[in-house]
Design a protein that fits this description.
This protein is about 40% helix and about 15% strand. It is α/β, with parallel strands linked by helices. The chain has one domain: Spore Coat Polysaccharide Biosynthesis Protein SpsA, Chain A (Alpha-Beta Complex), CATH 3.90.550. The model has no long low-confidence stretch (mean pLDDT about 85).
């Protein structure tokens, strides 16, 4: 059987320190094209991209003049122009990409092992993944037993992406979560492959607050779409404890006692 063709899409916004090393390693893999989507960069990233495009015929660039504020639009634009049977995605802010075996994602795609291939890795798990995405997915979509539910290192068949885009756009930062839910609910095959230890540039707390709200809205929207919100009726709050029952405990733990004791 002929190997599947692969396009790699790399969203970029002001990732000057790590951009060249990430793209250079990706080009070194057996891929058909690399599509860099410059999402309104204002530092030296654009100059690096122009140099990379000139250096290798596989590299193409799409430029968004004003930053979209998220990875979703760049990923979608890259996927729309990609010519491969599979479209892989990779972050441009990876600080140790030379040590990462990203090729395992591409090998699984070449062999058509699944419709959606998620790169699992060791290293710090994101705060949004741990404290927001996983608990909500466990509540509404417990069948999704995937470690990296929110990642930029993954690969999808073009067939799955085309079906998905007809249903919804890649929203904000959360395209992987949407793709996972959509894939499981539509019986696409999903696998994880270990790509080693991976490190990102850590996001600021202000960005994480916005992303957390977006993840919550996203998962609740999918839960409503697929009729998974019925379980919320079982989430009854505990009965309030009577104040009289708490008073002895309070008296024991307040230094100096209480007035009116």
């Amino acid at each position: 059987m002929e190997k599947a063709g692969i396009s790699v899409v790399i969203p970029v916004h002001n990732e000057e320190p790590h951009l060249e090393s990430v793209v250079t390693k990706i080009v070194g893999y057996d891929v058909d094209e690399v599509i860099i989507v410059d999402d309104g960069s204002t530092n030296g990233s654009s100059a690096i991209i122009r140099k990379l495009v000139k250096s290798h015929p596989k590299i193409k660039c799409i430029r968004i003049e004003s930053n979209s504020g998220a990875c979703g639009l760049p990923r979608e634009l890259g996927a729309l122009v990609a010519g491969g049977e599979y479209v892989a995605f990779c972050d441009s802010d990876l600080t140790n990409f030379d040590e990462v075996d990203y090729g395992r994602i591409l090998e699984a795609a070449r062999a058509r092992k699944a419709d959606l291939i998620i790169g699992d890795y060791t290293g710090k798990v994101g705060r949004i993944t741990n404290f927001v995405a996983r608990p909500l997915l466990q509540l509404f979509f417990p069948e999704i037993q995937i470690n990296r539910v929110k990642t930029g290192q993954y690969c999808s068949s073009k067939k799955l992406l085309e079906h998905f885009v007809k249903t919804t756009r890649f929203p904000d930062w959360n395209s992987t979560i949407s793709l996972l839910i959509f894939s499981f609910m539509n019986d696409y095959e999903v696998i994880e492959v270990d790509i080693g230890e991976l490190h990102h540039v850590m996001k600021r707390d202000a960005e994480l607050v916005c992303q957390s709200e977006s993840v919550i809205r996203l998962i609740l929207a999918w839960a409503g779409y697929y009729g998974r919100t019925g379980g919320l009726g079982n989430l009854t709050p505990p009965e309030p404890r009577a104040a009289d029952a708490l008073l002895p405990l309070i008296r024991q733990n307040v230094i100096g006692g209480l007035a009116g004791k």
